[in-house]
Amino acid sequence: MIFKKNKQTTDTTPQVIEVKLNKDYKFMYDNFLISSQHDLYLVLQGHGGQVDALKFNFRVYKFGYPNDEAMGTHPLAKFGLGSYGLFQVLNSPWTKEICEGNRIHPRHHDSMFENLKHYVARFKDVTLDILCNNMEEMQLPKEKVIELVNQELEFLTTDD
Fold first, then answer.
1. Nearest to 62, CA basis, from 119, 117, 128
2. Residue-level pLDDT at 158
C-alpha cells in the first residue's frame, strides 16, 4: 500500500490520507460486508472464481450514511476526505471519542486505543467508517467466502 497525503496539518488535527491499494478498485456501487464479532470483510470485486476484499480486525464500524450526495456532511470532509476511495485518518477524533467513552470501564487504559487505525471507504451510496487493529488486502476463492458465512452461521446454531 502507498499512502498519499492530501493535507498537511498539526499533530493533533486530523489528517486524511488516501490509501493506494495493490489494485485500482472502483469505489462506486458494488460492495458488501461480511462481519463477525471481530473480523469485517469488505468485498470489493469478483472475477472468475475469486473475490477481492479488505479484511479488517475491527473494534467498531459504521456503515451507511452519508452517500455521495451528502459527502460534505461527513465530519472529516473539512480535513480533505475525498470521495470514491479508501482513506486513513490520522489523529482520529472518533478514536479519541471511543477511548474517552471507555474510561468508565474499571480496567480501561488509554494505551488500548493507541494502535487503532481509522479507515473510511467512500462509495456512491454508502460510507464505511471503521476503527481497527489492522487492515489486509486479500483475494479469496468464492468458496472461502461461502465458508466464512457458513462458519458464522454455525455459531448461531442452538441445541434445542
1. 128
2. 72
Residue among 30, 40, 44, 34 nearest 86 (CA): 44
Give the 3-state secondary structure of residue 134: strand
20 strand-pairing partners = 2
Q: DSSP states of 92-115 as a string? A: -HHHHHHHHHHTTSTT--GGGGTT
* β partners of residue 110: none
Please give the pLDDT value at position 136: 97
Q: Is the peptide bond before 66 cis (omega within 30 degrees of 0)?
A: yes
**pTM of the entire structure?**
0.85
Sequence spans of domains, the chain: 2-156
Burial of 31 (0-12, 13-18, 19+ CB in 10 A): buried
